[in-house]
């Protein structure tokens, strides 16, 4: 059995089951776990097993990368379900699964109404994301890219907070609209290839060898870039993100910040840089400028927020600026830094959203002025919050720093000025992170704070796992760097000063 | 008797067609609109007959018959609708006023 | 062009103009009959005597009677005539007139260079038409029957529910 | 052996920290204190063992342990690796031993605080981070410790978070040091970029090879200097340290006096080879150090808060160290670092005990006459004060300061081709600083311990707190005899220890140089006695709110002099300090950022969001089209058809 | 000559016989149910005999009818749609229960089929009129009589004008070529170029009217709004398929005459933008669907102006997707209607549908998202095909408008979904919410088609990937 299609299909099937289970055996009491929750958990466990199999088994196959699956889909148009897996996709899938476990264990309790449907959409998003990470057929990639929007927007629109529907709409419109531009680029590439060779195919590896005119390559690259830039997000097109993150229910925020943003980074690495190396190199100064702008702008705005989730959302913009910077720094080091940053940010920000969600569940507000001083009441939650805030501000020894340092170093080689500016973002990061800490956790308790329950120990244990993972990423990233490096395209030399040494 | 060339036919038909069009556009009374429609259809029919004559082909007149049938059907249905609307409180037969369907 | 032909064409056009400018519906119907008769003349001159007969019998005869019948039934009288006058102010003619004129001009522009060597038209007899109609176009005739059936059913249904108003 | 012990050195406090954190709420105060002290204590023992191992080994080099590769990418290799060489050995000993003493003291001091677990967790974590900083053989690894100590400092300054002033002081400290950290990071980036590695040895070797252009060396040194300045609260980053006194006193002693703030000194000492090649930066370091020492001393003179006096004195003493570093006598800097750790920790701890017993009163003018109530503490404080002032021969501070002074006297900066700068003016400033040091610390001694009784003292100092004080007093008094000026019995144990190859010796040193160094503190002591030590002190009534000294009264000769010589310049300086421009800028940054980004938010709402909204708005406007076009009139519709036909014909025919 | 050797495509024959049978049945005893039953049976029969014909296939160009895979594809679509609409209106409360109704539906289908199969202007034009006249009758079947009649009136007059234009154009074409073969007129002999151009334009104008391309589109919303829901679906689906099928047949796979290029581009842009912009602020669901259908015709026309390898497949896939989605929307709307309660024709009535009627709301969302081109619906693949065709022909301008239009479209489709997700305004009145079983089946079947078609487009669409016109092209063989 090939694990790749199983990986993609399992979540949505499990989600369907969970939905059915939720309808058949609705929850008896709010405190009890219902059948659908167990179904989701079982799905994730099986998925993890399959993923472990995919990680450690080495099967013989025709693909250029460690994992490969191909099945004709629409032969008339040269479309096939081609799934390939290299370290980058593998590590991002691992990240997705970890975050899903987090959500299932810590956050889905929030969805009280129609829990089954909630879980279905949740797992459907996972399917979309995993499909996006695995697809090497451009059509299939686009299919999954669009597919993951729908359940996510549904999650936001149906289970979100006050202004959820507008946020969901904004999210959907931005991503879908930019996706259409990418569609045109995909088609442009395919048809250019068709004109040259007479072969109509959407195969990533085949299309990589299309020879393009500089202008054409630039245009096609820009089409991809726009879609990924919206998802990442890059500064001028980030408008959807704060709303979506803020309004989404906790689990959706986690998925959104933890994984969906990563699909943007993944796409930039996989498609912008690897498909169009020359155009990407020419575009790099602009992209890096945008990255720095994102770092500073995101951090700056983050430090002006009163809404916790909004603050975290803007900090995500800042962190994703590093990713953009690293991807376009043109060296393997920057790329690795970007990947590390994605992994670390996925974990850290997801945990922060979970904490913010836990606070909101207990205090029914996200306004930092009204939260105030939780340490006395909830030392566990607060210490976890403190830890992840430190991770967010780039404390060395935690995962984010590894990524940021590599990115900065790679940037310094290109332009010390940009690197210095980006490093300034770290000061701003300290400002927003500490502001959050000193408003929420380490502050005088609010007079009207009702007695609240702290996190139970088992939840704390889950958080501890994440912390341990972040520390691991921060102190011993080498295996992850080797593991999660994007593999070069076969038969083409990866351009870049880094060469191909892992 | 064959005094008309195709060209002349076209001339007459075009003018007739335009008059019919103008009639549809300018009249607010639905009965007049139907009459103008008939004029337009007749213009089209005239073209067919003229063309049939030009190619010496009976098909043109076959088309004429078809158009005649169409005109009959349209007139019948149209008048039925007019009568119906008239019966339901549209005494003026004005096509412009009392529109429920708009926007 | 034959003088009679010219006359017939002129009558057709003038009749049509009268149709669309009349205030009283019955007058318009009468002018329409005149137009159709003149058109029948034109058809005859095109060698299509069968078509001309149909024009007179069915169009001027049957369809126009339908019009007259409906007009009588609706009892359009003096107030309607006054209202029509109100509606037919010169300003109302401006837009439609211009549009129709432009369409006419464009069509004429398209057809005008045609006035050169054109094949001489010849008469087509009833026989020719009949042979075609029930020969190669028999299916078309069948389709026309369905068209008439559709019109029949529609008009029947619409007319039947006239009084209902449910 | 060393491969196990060296990581264990770091691991012990770390483990203690984890245990304390995780068991929060389940362990009693005593148990927590025990665990913390045990963790640090084991470290101290280990450090001594390791020092012995190091010193018994070959002279050059040190104990190296590479734990695991951290980042190995093309163009960068960084390891998690520890080195124990002679420089770090000194520092490790200081950190662990002083740390242990302070932990023991704190176990008594913090006994009744509800947040004791958090306190000891942070303290032990701090020791661990500090040890990482000290032991790191890789600059990037050092950076872990560097930021880690900053974090602990932040947490401990804001330990009593109920008061917003404390948390804001904590944040101020973090922001300011963070700015320096970013500069340091930039320096690291530059070095990593040029050399491909951040291992200190290889970086210095590359620099020595000339793989880095001179400008690069200067810039890198400048970046590192900025980082060090921020960490050590030197001009222009001095503002955070006095505020940092908001933390518990053991914190102030350990972090903000003995160890963390000296990290900057340590860092520069570590990379002194790099600095040696960057003459302008050296000069800058020296000048900034001199300015800081003078300013710190001046400001300390007019403070009234006991802990703030000590804080400013710390700044001033760190200025000495930077002066020494700038003058290339990094051995002297480290020596002073060590002695300063002893006596300043002693001073802080004693002050903490005094304040605690005096009912948490920190204003020196409200204290007073405590000599009788707490003789032991008085003795300890006087011992510390003497060491700080550097009273000749009997205190450790004298020897270390003397070493700095002699180093400064001999220095010559070759800034550019013919621009040289003699060290003599700096020497003068340092000497003046020595005088002022004695003046302000004995002002403090006389006001607090002599004279009329102020607040009533209560309770007594527990033995747990007493023992460290005794130990530190001994160290402060006698810890300096391992290095003596040539004029005295020429003893160079310390510098020989640090740098066995080139013993620091100035044979041609004039005797009056030592004499001047010895007399200046004495003069300070005398003046202080004159001003504050007599039964009716001249300056007694001056309200001590920093810098707001009433205009000197006429008719008292000494006052005029004092006013002219000290007060006016101090007022200026103190006014400048009080303005606290960078400090305000930093604390203000939060508010400023908020204001500015609120502005940006407005702009954003007006720009990006509004653009998005405008787009939908346009679309909505377009949504009104139905009303315009689709008006329900058949004739209108027909006109469109005719118009369409018209246009189509026109386009097709006329084109 | 008259007899068994006349070439008639079987579906046409079956449907017309069906009409006769229904007439006979009506003459025997009037019964609505029997009419529906008879019609359904005949349609099923007709679907099964698609591809068959009587007589021998004429080889010359003089045939009235033509039959190939393209006709089979569109004929199946048409009959399938009619079948669905039959099912929808079987016991629809919004439709007057008269036995003329199934008869007119069948007549309309016959007209549409005639258009599809026609290879000659005559059956094309007659089919068009049969369809039109049937629609005139059908729209009056609602209970709200006046809007129905008003709609019929508008349709009558406007379609009369367009028919006249079309006929005039055909006449000109006939005058130019001397033949009524269903293809663009090519100047023969001394006839100047302007006349065939004018003829083509006028024929196109007539076709665009039926297709409701933008300057000629205004009847569609009014007519659909005035009609009962199933009839609106009929108008939106069947007549569109038929006319588009004819349009493709008319121009074939060859490039359009160059003079048409600007006009077509202009019409496409106007159609896309007009349809989408007008749909933005609609409160009426049917009206919104009408405008969205106009926009979809615009998208389809993009494929139409990009002839070649992709065109036939793309057009058929898009038509199929559009058909199924639109039918789904209308079926859900029909199922939403409760006698004495909301009839689902206003978007606001759908507020809170996700909580009050989750199944219908889910189906509706699926259909709307598929219309918007979001996976996994079949509409995604369809739009992908359109874009592919556009990129292949480097229709950059049109593609820009495709994207802009899609985004606007997404907005109003999502707005409906949003409305459905909102909390219901009022505590819902206890009404009988039992859905008619046949509607449930229909809705489920349509949803499955949408999803399966989206997931396995190749399998689902394989029969729809024919060369549209006589197998002249060589490249077409590769498409299946």
- Tally the beta strands of chain B: 0
Q: So what's the oligomer here?
A: heteropentamer
| Shape label of chain A | globular
Task: Summarize the helix and strand pattern of chain B as letters.
Answer: HHH
- Low-confidence blocks of residues of chain A: 492-502
Q: Of all protein chain pairs, which has the greatest interface, and how many residues does each chain bring to it?
A: B-C, 75 and 89 residues
Number of helices of chain A: 20
Radius of gyration of chain B, CA atoms, in whole angstroms = 17 Å
Strand content of chain A is under 5%
Helix content of chain A: over 70%
Total domain count of chain B: 1
Task: Spell the H/E element sequence of chain A.
Answer: HHEEHHHHHHHHHHHHHHHHHH
> What composes the largest sheet of chain B?
none
Question: Which second-level CATH architecture of chain B applies?
Answer: Orthogonal Bundle
Question: What is the count of β-strands of chain A?
Answer: 2
Mean pLDDT of chain B, rounded to whole units?
A: 85
Looking at CATH, which topology of chain B would you report? Helix Hairpins
Record the SSE blueprint.
The complex is a heteropentamer of chains A (502), B (103), C (166), D (655) and E (480).
Chain A: H1 3-24, H2 35-56, E1 67-74, E2 79-85, H3 87-107, H4 115-134, H5 138-147, H6 149-159, H7 164-197, H8 204-207, H9 214-231, H10 240-247, H11 250-275, H12 277-302, H13 308-327, H14 332-363, H15 368-371, H16 379-392, H17 399-414, H18 416-441, H19 457-475, H20 478-484
Antiparallel strand pairs in A: 1-2
Chain D: H1 2-22, H2 29-56, E1 63-73, E2 76-84, H3 86-109, H4 116-135, H5 139-157, H6 164-195, H7 200-209, H8 214-231, H9 240-243, H10 249-258, H11 263-270, H12 272-276, H13 279-302, H14 306-326, H15 330-357, H16 370-373, H17 375-389, H18 396-410, E3 412-414, E4 420-422, H19 424-449, H20 463-478, H21 493-498, H22 511-533, H23 557-579, H24 581-606, H25 608-623, H26 625-629, H27 634-654
Antiparallel strand pairs in D: 1-2, 3-4
Chain E: E1 8-9, H1 10-28, H2 32-48, E2 53-54, H3 69-89, H4 100-117, H5 121-138, H6 145-177, H7 194-211, H8 219-226, H9 229-251, H10 259-280, H11 285-304, H12 311-336, H13 353-356, H14 358-372, H15 378-392, H16 396-421, H17 437-455, H18 457-461
Antiparallel strand pairs in E: 1-2
Helix pairs in contact in E: 1-2, 1-4, 2-3, 2-4, 3-4, 3-9, 3-12, 4-5, 4-9, 5-6, 5-9, 6-7, 6-8, 8-9, 8-11, 9-11, 9-12, 10-11, 10-16, 11-12, 11-15, 11-16, 12-14, 12-15, 12-17, 14-16, 14-17, 15-17
